[in-house]
Structure formats: structure tokens, C-alpha cells
Amino acid sequence: MNRRMGLRLTWAVLAGAGADLAGLGLIAAAAWLITRAAEQPPLAALSVAIVATRAFATGKGVLRYAERLTGHDVALRAQAATREELYEALIPPRPPRHGGADLLSRMVDDTEAVQDLLVRALIPAAAAALTGLAAVVVGLFVLPVTALVLVAGLAVAGVLLPALTAAAARRWSARIAPARAALAGSVADLVHGSADLAAYGAEDRALTAALAADDDLAALERRQARVQALALAGGTLVQGLTVAAIVLLAQGAEAGPVATAVLALTALVSFEPVLPLAAAGERMAGITAALRRLKEVRTAPAAVAEPRDPAPVPAPPYTVEVEDLVVRHADAARPALDGMSLTLTPGRRVALVGPSGAGKSSLLSALMRLVEPEAGRVLVNGADLRAFASDDARTLMTGLTQDPYVFQTTLRDNLRLAGPEAGEEELARAVREARLEQWVERTGWDAQLGEDGRTVSGGQLQRLALARALLHDPPVLLLDEPAEALDEETADRLMADLLDATRGRTTLLVTHRLRGLEDVDEIVVLEEGRVIQRGTHAELVAAPGYYRDLWESEVLTRSR
Amino acid sequence: MRAERSVRRHLAVTLAAAVVAGLLVLVQAELLAGVLSGRFAATALTGLVAVVALRALLAWTQGAFAGRTATGVKSALRRRLLERLQELGPARLSDHRSGELVTLAGRGLDRLDAYLTGYLPAVAVAGVVPVAVLVRLFAADLASAVIVLVTLPLIPVFGALVGMTTKAVTERQFHALSRLGGHFLDVVRGLPTLRAFGRARYQATVIRQVADAHRAATMRTLRVAFLSSLVLELCASLSLALVAVPIGLRLLGGTLDLTTALLVLLLAPEAYLPLRAMGTRFHASMEGVAAADAAFAVLDGAADPEPATPAKAAASAGPGRGAPRIELENVTVRYPGRDDPALFGVSLTIEPGERVALVGESGGGKSTLLHLLLRFVEPAEGRVLVDGADLRELDPRAWRDRLAFVPQRPHLFATSVAGNIRLGAPEATPDEVRRAAAAARADEFVERLPGGYDTPVGERGANLSAGQRQRVALARAFCRPHAPVLLLDEPTARLDGRSEAAVVAATAELSEGRTAVIVAHRPAMIELADRVVRLHEGRVVSDTAAHRRVPSPAPPPPDNPSSEPPSSGTPVATSSSGASSAGVSFSDARPSHSPSSGTPSSGARSPDGPPPEPGAPGDRTADDEQARSGREETVRAGRQDLGGDR
User: Fold this and answer.
1) Which of A193, B315, B554, B566 minimizes the number of CB atoms within 10 Å of its CB?
2) Any stretches that span the bilayer, and where are they (chain A) (predicted)?
């Protein structure tokens, strides 16, 4: 947090404290005014109190308004800064476990914790502390012993109770969160699986399970409510007892009605900003958990080490050599890629085939510097890929990656992100090559895509991703399952066009469809991370083995 | 309902506790004023302590019972909502956005908490306490009471005025706010894509700009929104000053005693406080009201043609238990809110034991036809007969008991693999489950799972690959060996070649001796069928017996510009092995690559025009036929799982 943020935060706290103090001043001045007036002094003696009463009354509202505005402004700025920091931390590739979409949503929600931390906890707590301090100072001047009682009361209500509620919330959320997840799971089963349940006459069983999960959650929530109610009752009790004790002490010390009234009412009002802190304490449990998760994300090691002095990118054309590459994903027992070698000379097209989990995508990840190989190396024109900045490595080798994403923006911008400089002509060509032109015509270039906008089917998404890859036109084109999620006919046409479009381009194609592969220069068959076969289509079909089996089952499922 | 009665009782206790606690503040003020003015002896402090203790007790009661009320209301609503969802049935459920329904029944209802535990008690207090305070003030000091009485209504009036302005401003900004607010998540989710195209760093600046815009827009709304609390705060505190200053002056003049003055000072804020509390809780509670509205919309919504309850009380599953003959008579199906019928005047007879493949592009009505047979949807016109009995006359559950269904996207439940297979046959023994799995080619990968059949499949089958999920769903169908009707919705979609071959082989066995209706788009699946029915825009456009292979006119290609041959460069291929019968199949999607062919090769059972085989040059000869029959063996033997180890 920089100095300007600190300054803004200070203003927010001061405005909050000012509002609370004005409330305190209002009641103290009014109490003084009334009790002093009962002693019937000359009017002039009251005029200051009268003015003060009115000023405090106005100041309280205005300062509260100022506090809320500055508080939210600073909180939004802090949130934006947190998000920026988080984003910067996420730019270098991460090991895959930080990837899931739900995890990402939660991470983004977590950045809102910063806002809550400031608006709900930090600013009110600081303001309450200043107000309490002022009330204690008033007590010290009037009758020191009452100040002691007040300090004790405020400490219980403002420190002890919030600490207890925070601890309780931590304990309860640990029990309620799984119950909530169980309920959500069984409700999701009921809704998403309704066809399966209805078809198999299992609706009643599923409903019973969901209602049982609801009962469990309700029981926990009831117990949590009782604990929260206890904190509320505790606050009321402490406030009342403190005021009673102060009155007793003041009367015992014969402080006189003016002093007693001022002391008692000041004490009473000083609790008002303090009592809500119990609820803030409860929220703190969630906030600290969120902040901890964010910190974990920020400090998680990047997937690949960046070189200290990145080597300059060599000049084209590029020859890529993969030598005995071993890739292992976070403490997996078996390496995903286990000693793979491959050479991509300029213009050469190589296809990678094999069952899912064979290590095809792992190789692409290693080439794009998204994972650090355990052993072996990748050479680009003889230079180790690790010598380049990973951003530079990805300018050499990239393309269609797994799980392409549609952004919530226009179709044009969704495509153009792969080629910011591209003109209309180039966009149109990429769209044509990816067989997307009809859809583009129907939808329009300026249609909003993504969550709020038009939905994009799996096939359209895949073709959009392909259009991006073709528009980007990297020196070495990587294509990860370009025909994935397409229906048979479209997939066939797409692959055919693709093989046409990539003629003469250095290409590494991951696929599980063998159709059309007779055109590529080399086919590498991977299984369990190892190369089990390699050669041209004709060679591989001629020899018994995985490729021929796969080819034959593909032929069989196609036609007879 | 008993549960709802107890909810009402809990709510009554909550409100009573809140109101009594509010009234006790009056007593507290009375005692405090008495003690401070010296009218009451210090012993009155005992009373004060007792009042405080009582308030604490009531606060606890209020909180605890509010919790009971909230959970009670949520449970009751949730129960009714879930029951309603079941009544709606799968077809209409898919009309709603299912994700929203899940959220609504889960976290959505939690938003009611603020309404039930915060707002309702605040309303009760606001209805009683200010009146009580006014009554007491009138008794104590008329002038102050009048000031409070006059200023008190300003709070709701200003609150409503500012609230309306805020609403207008918020609504104007809402779209921008939600768009800007969602931007960050959008970018983070798409980060791998941005990274792949070297745009990740550039987006950091965009994020900053968007965050600034978002903050500016938010602050614009907040400036107005917070005005309401400013006005309320000012009303309350200025009124207090308005009360206090005249009292002081009158004390000075000796026309008022100190006890009354202190009482007025202590009581006056208590008149405003409940109204302000109600105001601040109003906004949070409105989310809960919206959630309740959404829930009631689902509960009340679509008071629609309930599946006509069978005329006869003893509705049966239809005559006979064997494979039935199914007839569709001029059936039209409409979905609410859509102009075009999903099925239009479809007539179709499916003989017992016949295997029918439904083909055609998506949206043509294939799945609707299956849903019709499942009674997820009812015909708007026409009827469906099962062995001559109207399907509507049959008890849906008893009828579905005769079906085995594999949906397009089978849902796996968060239980064990065995539990998932046993879905339609809860009594099945482990042995029967294993047999079903084996028949569905699922046994190998299941046995390799860490816990075998007891392995949890994870939420929505997250621990399994698409091919494995599909085979578990097939095993589910196999686990109902008595079901004479098989309904399959694209069972090989999203499978790779070997998994597909395994599933096709399993399906062939499963459909043996049963009436089977299979939505298919891959040749291998289609060729299992005795008959191929092509649906286009809700109508049957062709109905070809597989063995006849009479080319029937294909519908015009709906949207297909490309007329290039599909594959790279083996034009000779078209001439061999069955060629493309224009009859059924994909002629729309794979146009004109061999328009002139259609020389049916004898004996081939395939109704489908096979695509040219790219790697199978035209010189495939009779040897190939032999090779192929051998190949089938290869495939059947090669059942090992490909999607397995991910």
C-alpha cells in the first residue's frame, strides 16, 4: 500500500472517528446542557453547549457520509490494487492445480475480502477505538476511576467479544462449509441429473438425500445462530453493566449530577460504535481465510524458471529439436512424458497420436514453457529453450491450446486478441480457413460473446480458437486437438482444411483422429509418455501395433 | 404443515423478543434518568442492572429463534422447491437455466437470512417502539413530544425519496457495473489463452483501466445511495438537538424538572433509532425478497398441463411386459415459448424388437422424440401408443420401469461407481453390478480404479473421463436386464475411436432382443440399426429400412457452403466399399462429394453412405472384406480403455 493510499485510509478513519465522536459530543453536550441548566446558571454559560449540540448534530451526519464515501473509495482502490497484484502473479504459468474455473472464481471473490477488510473491519474498528479513547479521556478528566471501568468494558465489548466471534466463526465455517457443499451437490444431482433420475425411477431417493443434507445444514446453522446470539447478548450486558458501575462510582464519589450524567451518557454512547465489532469479528474469519488464500496464490512458485539474462530470439527459420524430454506433473508417480525426442525442421509437419493421458499435451506445454521438464531439453536452432524468456518462447511456438476461452466481448475482439495488428482482410481469411465464416455472418462481427452474450457451442469455440491460431501465425504452429468437440462431418472438413492451410508451415498437431494423416511428414505415437511408434501413415498402417489398431477401429466406426 | 406451524411460532417468539427488548429500553431510560437526576436512590441501579440483564436475555432469545425461523423457512421453501423441480420433470427443467436453479435452491435461499433475522424484527420494533416512546414523551413533556412527532415521519419520507433516486441511479449504472465487475474474472479465466498469444501482460493495463472505470461508476452510485443515510442521520441528530436545546432553556427558566429533561434526552433518540435500523436493513433484505420471489416463481410458475393423470386409478405399465410395439400417431410436440414445434405431425411405428436409428442434425427433434417416449414431454397433438394403449393412460413410473435410457450427457451422481450403475436397480447385487459393467465394457477401467466399484466418482463424475462416464451410463442400462425398451441419445458422442468401438459393441449386445431407439450421428452406431429414421426440423424426412438401401431423396443441405471433398486427396476412395448412398445420413453435412455413386454393394448392411476413406485407397478389394471381419474381432478384443488414465 503506497503513501497516497495510506493517506486516504487515514482520512476515512478520521471521518469515521469524527462521526462517532460527534455522536459522543452531541450526547455529552446535551447532557451537560441539561444538567447544567437545571442548576440555573446565566444563559451565557449555556451558549457554548447549545452551539456545540447543534454543531455535533450536523457534523455527525456529514462526517458519517464522508466516512462512507472515502471508505468505499479507498476500499475499491485497495481491491483494484489487489487484483492487479494477483493478475501479475498469475501471468507466469502455474502448475495446473491453480487452474480450475471454480478455483479462479473463488480467487476473484477473495479479492473482495480486501474491500470488506477495510469497510467492515479496519475503518470501523479504528474509528471505534478513537471514540472509546475520547470517552476514556473524558472520564479521566472528570473522575479517573470511571475511566478504568470504561476501559474494561470497552475492551470486553470491542476486543474480547470480536475475538470470540472470530474464533467461533472459524470453527463453524469449518463445519458448515462441507455441509453446504453436500447440500449443493445433492441439489445439483437433482437438477442436472433429473433425466437420469426420472428415467430410472430414482427421484424419491435423490430427494430424500437432498432433504437429509438440508437437515444437517439447518441443524448446524441453528447452533451457529445461538452462538452469535450469545455474543449479541454479551455486548448488551457489558454496556449496561459498565454504565451502571460508572453511575455507582460517580455517585459514591459524589461527583455531582452534571458530572454523573456526562460520564454515564458518554459511556453509554461510546459503546455504540464498539458493539458492531462483534459482527465484524465474525466476518474477519472469512476475510483472513481469503487473504491467506490470496497470499498462497501469490507466493506459489511459477511453473518454469525464467533465465536471468534471457537470450535474444534467434532469426528464422527455426528448427526445433526435442531431446529425451521428461515431464512430470506435480508429484505424479509416473512422468507424463518419459524420454521423448522429436525434430521439427522448417516446414515439417508432425502429428502426435495416442490415447488421452499419453503425454501429447504435456509435450506442447513443455514447448510453450508452461511446465519445466524434469530431464532432457528442447533446442531452438541449437539454443536451449530455457535460455529464452518464456514469453519469447511462446512467440516462437504457440497456437491452439487446450480449453480455449471466449471472452465477454465482441466476436471481433475475441479473434483480434491473437492478432492486434490484423486488418479486416486477415481476420476474414482466418475465419474462412477455420470454417467459421458462416457463423460470423449470422452472428455479426460486433456480437457480444461470452457469459452475458451469445452462447458459443463447443464446435464454434474450437473453430474460433483455430481462427485465432491461424491469425496469430506463429513460426511453429501447435495445434492441440483442433477437431475436438466437433461433429464428425465438420471435424473431417476442418481437418482437411487444416492440413491444407498448414502445408509448408512448421506444425505440431495433436490429434486422436487419424483421417488425413497420410499427408503429414511424420506421425509419432505416444503411450504412457513413451514413443511406441513413429513413421509415416503408410509405414505405420503396414506394421502391426497401436496405430494400425486405432486406424482399423476408426475405419470400422466410419464405414464398412 | 407441522413444520410451517413451528416456523410461525419461532417467528412470533423472535418478533416478541425484539419488541419487548425495544420497550425495555424505555424502562432503562426511565431508571437512568431517575438515578442521574437523583430522584431515585442508588438502589434503583439494581433495577437498571436487572433490566439490562433481561435485555441481554431477550437479545439471545431473539437471535436464537431468528436462527430457527430462518432455517425453518429455508428448509420448507427448499423442500417445496425441490419437489416442484421433480414435478417439472427433465424436459421443462432444461427450459430454466439449470445452474440458476441449483444456486437458487442452495445459496440463493440463504439470502433470506437477512430478511428473516434482520429486517422482520426491525419492522416489528419500528412498528411498536416509536409509538411507545411518543406516548411516554407526551406524558412527560408535550413540547418535546410534538417536536419528535413532527420530525419522526421525515425519516421514512426522506428514506423513501432517496431510496427511489438511488434505485434509478443504480439501475442506470447496473449494466455497466456488472460488466466492469465481471471483467476481471473473465480475464483471469482466459489467461491461458491470453498467454498463448502473448497478450497477458498487455491485459494488466486494461485491468487497471477497467478497475478505474468500475470504481468511478460505483462511487457515482454510492454518492447518491449514501445520501439516504446522511439524511436519516441528520434527521435523527438534528431532532435530538432540536429537543435538547429548548429543554435546556426551559430548565433554565425553571419550567421543567431535571428528571423529565433527562428522560426526554434519553428517550428521544430511541424514537428514531428503530426506523433507521429498519432502513439500513432494508437493502440487504431485498436480496432475500428477490430470492423468495424467484423461488415462488418456480413454485407457482407453469401451472401447466400436468401430465394428464391416468383415467383409470389402477394405471398400469401397459399391457404385456415384453418388447412392446410403439406407435406415434401424427404427434406434434411444442415447447413453451418457442414458435416452431419440436416435432410436427410425426407418425412412426416401431415394431417389437426393432432397432431404429434416429439421425439428422441437432435441433431436428431427435432428442425430443426420445423424451416423448420417456414421457418427459407430452404431445400437443396426436398420441403415442404402446401395444395399442395410449401412453398417457399409463402410469409414468411403471412405464419408465420398462425403459433403459442413456442420455446424451449422462449425469453421474456423487456416489460410488457401483451406486451409479445401480441407479435404476437399487436391489442389484454386487455381482449383477459387475456383470452390467462388464457388458458395458466398463469393468476393466473400474477395476483399475483405486477403490474399484466403491470408488467415488466425484461431483458430476469429475474423476472419470468422458468415455468412462459414458460406459458407466451404459452399465446403468445393462443393470436393468428386464427393461425391454432401450433409448439411447448419442451414446458415442465425444468418444475417441477405441472407446467408441467398445461402446458400439456393448450397445449391439444391449439392444439384442429389445426395442431400441438410438439417436446416432456416427456411422458405426447407425449401422447397428434395422432402420434409419431421419428427422429434419421436427419432421420425418426419410425412413429407410437398413437392408433395403433404397436411396431416398435427401433434404436440401440446410447450411452448407462448402462443396469440397472432405479429405485431402484420395478421390478414388469414393468408388469403393459401399459408397455413399444418398439415402440416409450425412448428405447435408457432407455434400456432393460423390453424388453419382449409390451403386449399392451387395450384402452390406450399412444404410449409411460411408465417407471416403482417406487412407483406404480405392484398390481395396475383396480381401478387405475379409480383413474387415477380422478387424471387428480386433476391435472387440481391444476393449481396453483409452480415456482411462488421464
Assistant:
1) B315
2) 12-34, 40-57, 117-141, 147-169, 229-250
